[in-house]
Design goal:
436 residues, Porin, 16-stranded antiparallel barrel, 17 strands, mainly beta, 10% helix, 6 helices, globular
Length: 436
């Protein structure tokens, strides 16, 4: 007996069960109709990094970077995507499931409140996609979906560079909620949504702390600052009611053909406000607001495109008391600005560059006295990437990155966590990704 190829694939993954032969034969046409438009795709992301100098206990604090990736070969992540896009019907429906396996899955931080640990596995996205025939079509995502703001993608293969920017590192990443989108014209689209929390933990609520994952946008900066004052107190969470929700909105605008060389340029802006129960990592939560403005610009040079992004993250004030009766006050803010340039030099060779600057401020006071002698981190970074598509379905990149402490504070290197010794961090990486 022959089964449809998608039935066999999904059965192997545990999504469907193959019954007795006679029953399967009777329902073969039904299964084929239901699964014919479902696709399975993904990629395997690998890398090799060389960090110049000695001591990698304190690496540059951008997302998905860690000491364990330094000076060696790495499996970054494997993504499996099971996807059914919307059809041409008026009342169309579909879904998407993105599953991650590998070390980067732990940094993703989407493990639910019922999870007992990271375990190199995570659900990146899992949502139902619906379309209603209103005007040009109103679409809805219900479930777990990527944040609506940001220049760079969570998927490294979709970004111009292998490593992530600081702007991407302070942006919200994943939400559990409902997102609606409407395209007024081919040039203008808006999105609006509501979610449980800002933080990525699936099914999290505003009345609880994090599940123990140190994936908050301020966690790397907290680590660097805390090293200067090992006895600094940890503030408590400013938790809210379970019904307190996160709200988001965005728009994107595309330049029409009438603008000549600027045709196809895009402007994008968005805002996300809500409770993050791991804003500072380690279960320290706070209300936060994230603002984003980004643009891509076409140029008179056919194969050259420029880009720019600005991120601002504002956290409210956390006030709590200690067992000794002391009062702890903490608030924070961060911003990052970045410029991008991409040149398609030949059919197979493309060159990409990114320049960025970020500042992060953590104002921690114990009974009104500042706990940190230097509570503002300033980092300037440059990244150069060469991509050469030699093999079919393979993305191969060589990248050089420089991160510099712009306020004279040692932030990088060192043999012991919490004791940085360098003001500059240099890293050379090779990135090989196979897409299937």
């Amino acid at each position: 007996m022959k089964y449809h190829r998608w039935t066999v694939s999904l059965a192997a993954l545990g999504f469907v069960t193959l019954g007795p032969a006679a029953r399967a034969e009777e329902k073969a046409n039904v299964l084929q109709t239901a699964l014919a438009s479902t696709t399975i795709s993904g990629y395997v992301d690998t890398s090799a990094q060389w960090n110049f100098g000695t001591g990698n206990a304190n690496v540059a604090p951008y997302k998905f970077n860690s000491p364990s990736k330094s000076d060696g070969f790495n499996l970054d992540v494997v993504q499996i995507r099971i996807d059914k896009p919307l059809s041409e019907e008026d009342w169309a429906a579909g879904y998407r499931v993105d599953l991650w396996a590998g070390p980067d899955a732990n940094a993703l931080g989407t493990q639910s409140t019922l999870s007992s640990g990271a375990g190199d596995f995570a659900v990146r996205q899992a949502y139902v996609l619906l379309q209603a025939p209103l005007g040009n079509g109103l679409t809805f995502k219900m479930g777990v979906f990527d944040s609506i703001i940001g220049y760079e993608s969570v998927e490294s293969a979709n970004d111009p560079n292998y490593t992530r920017s600081y702007g991407h590192s302070i942006e919200p990443q994943t939400h559990t909620g409902l997102l609606s989108s409407y395209r007024f014209t081919d040039l203008f689209r808006v999105s609006a949504g509501i979610a449980n929390t800002v933080n990525p933990s699936i099914n999290s609520r505003a009345d609880s702390g994090s599940t123990g994952f140190t994936s908050g946008p301020f966690q790397p900066y907290w680590n660097a600052l805390y090293a200067t004052v090992p006895t600094a107190p940890i503030p408590g969470s400013d938790a809210h009611a379970e019904s307190y929700k996160t709200y988001m909105g965005s728009f994107d605008l595309t330049a029409p053909d009438t603008l000549g060389v600027l045709a196809g340029s895009t402007l994008y802006a968005g805002i996300v406000n809500g409770y993050n129960n791991s804003a500072f990592g380690s279960g320290v939560g706070d209300v936060q607001t994230s603002y984003y403005v980004g643009a891509t610009l076409a140029t008179p040079i056919t194969h050259l495109r420029l880009g720019a992004a600005f991120d601002y993250l504002d956290l409210g004030n956390v006030t709590s008391g200690t067992t000794g009766g002391n009062t702890i006050n903490m608030d924070g803010n961060a911003f990052a600005v970045a410029g991008y340039a991409s040149l398609q030099a030949t059919e197979k060779l493309s060159l990409h560059a990114r320049i960025e600057y970020t500042e992060t401020k953590l104002d921690l006071k114990l009974d009104g006295t500042p706990a940190f002698p230097n509570d503002r981190l300033k980092i300037f970074a440059m990244t150069w990437t060469a991509q050469y598509d030699l093999w079919q379905n393979v993305l191969s990149r060589l990248e050089l990155r420089w991160d510099h402490s712009a306020n004279g504070q040692d932030l990088f290197g060192g043999e012991t966590t919490g004791v940085p010794e360098l003001k500059n961090s240099w890293m050379l990486a090779a990135n090989i990704i196979y897409k299937f």
